[in-house]
Each structure stands twice: as structure tokens, then as C-alpha cells.
């Protein structure tokens, strides 16, 4: 038996509870992992609270990230004792995820835990930091460089935003952070933001084209914020879209893309090929200032995760929530 958060649903209720789970209940997979740490992402918050129908089958263990040790393997790339890492692949939505002390998974979804990281550090980074790095790789692929001008990061206090600021700043970019939380200005400055703007300047309906400002944008918000970011991106700039905190809609026009040659690059963190995932994590090992991890993240126990999910969706938590599933 092991502990885990289990989400279940019937005609009358939707509930997430901490339970004792037996190994026999684990889903199919060729690698069983003894989980050390998981995380609480926005999507996990939606799953645990039932605020959005992200869970596709029941019962379900949430948790889109995990790091731990292989216990049993039928996969040629892994053996018992190997340290592994997983982000995405629909775990916590269609396949049991990381917010439990064990997970049984498809070995193709795993990558080796990079030697630069402990399991706890890897989860402090998690899907948020990994997505931020995929966004930066997209900007670099399109030729964006620090000498071209300012980079806007929206949703700056969230996990993706926090890591995007830290990484871009270390790489030499001048970063402008958009946030609605004036109390977090000092935090964003510590991460490396050169300037902070109120998210209200971007979150309302705007013009199809606005004054050119941004060389590039990393947006985790979507909706009007993404539309306005595109409208004010400079000619031949790139906007990496990786989130939808404000909404899935995109109330924009084609003007920035046709008249200014702006590129809108969609960032899919869920099903990247293994080589791309390893590249992103190797870049994180090289380009992230590990000293910032305690500033960006904090740790909770598995028993605290359900309550924390509600606070996460209410905007009461900063940065990353690391979950020690063994306490």
C-alpha cells in the first residue's frame, strides 16, 4: 500500500482525497517509479478542485510532474535504481500521475534525471521551468537575441513567468515583467526583471496594432493579454504562447503577423520528443541560477496538496509548489 491523492466522480459529487492505494490499482505501464517529489501546477489545481474538466477518466491520481527512482522496469532504457524525471504526456489527466508515492508509467515518457539536479530541484523547476526553456528555445530558433530589445514576460509571478525572467536575465536579455500583484515587485526584481508593468495595461480589449515595443514575448496568460502582446511586438519579433490563465480565446487580428511579420510560436510542453526534452533540461542545467530556486519555490507535504490547490487557483501562491509525497 502507498499514499496518494485520488480524484473520483459520480453523479452527485466530485472529490479529491488522500487515500491508501494498493499496487494492484496502478494502471498499466512498463516502468514502476517510487516517487520522491511531485509538484502542484495550475493544471493540477484545476484537476483537484474540479474547476475545469481536465481529468479525462476516473479515478485519477493528479500530478503532471514527478521525479523518483525506478523500482521495476520492463523498458530497455531503464533498470531498477535509475533516477528518472517526467513532465506531461497526459499524466494526471488520462493516466495516473505523480501526486502519490508510486507511479506506473510508459517508459518512453521518462528521461534520466540530469546529474546536475536533485529530485527536489528538478521538481522545483518542473513543467513550469521546462516550459519556460522551451519558449526560450523557440525565441532563439527565430533569431531573437539580447541586442534586439526588450522581452515581455506575462503572468510574471507564476511558475513559467518566474523561470522565464530568471533564464532570460541570465542570458542577457532586458526583461519587462507584467503582473497584477504590486506586492511582488521586489521578488520579480530579484529574479532579474528590469521593469515591471501592471497587467491591466494588457488584459483589456485593445487595438489590432499598437506601438511597437517588444522584441519578443513569453506569454502564459492567453486571451486579451496575448492579443495585446502580439499587437505591440516589433517587426519580425516572436511571441511564444505557452499558457491560458486568462482564457483560451484569442481576440486578435492578423495585422501583427502580416503587416509586421510577427511570429506566434505555440509551445507544447506535453508531448515533446525525447531529444527535445533532454535538450531543454540540459539547457536548464547550464542557464539557470540554482541559487534562485529557494526564492521561486517552496515545499509542502502530500497531505497539504489538496488545500494548496485551492489557494493556487485563488492566486494566493507565488512561483512553484514542490510536493514531498513521502510526508
In short:
With 327 residues, the protein is of the alpha/beta class. It contains 10 helices and 15 strands.
Explain how this protein is built:
The protein is an alpha/beta fold. It has two domains: 2-113 and 293-324, Medium-chain alcohol dehydrogenases, catalytic domain (Quinone Oxidoreductase, Chain A, domain 1, Alpha-Beta Complex); 126-266, Rossmann fold (3-Layer(aba) Sandwich), CATH 3.40.50.720. It has ten helices and 15 strands. It has helices at residues 42-49, 119-141, 159-170, 185-191, 200-203, 223-231, 255-259, 274-287, 293-296, 305-313; strands spanning 2-9, 14-21, 31-40, 65-73, 83-87, 102-105, 111-112, 151-153, 175-179, 195-198, 214-219, 233-241, 263-266, 297-301, 320-324. Strands 3, 4, 5, 6, 7, 14 and 15 form a seven-stranded mixed sheet that branches. Helix 7 links the parallel strand 12 (233-241) and strand 13 (263-266). Helix 2 (119-141) packs across helix 8 (274-287). The longest helix is centred in the middle third of the chain and has 23 residues, at 119-141. The radius of gyration is 20 Å and the shape is globular. The two termini are 15 Å apart.
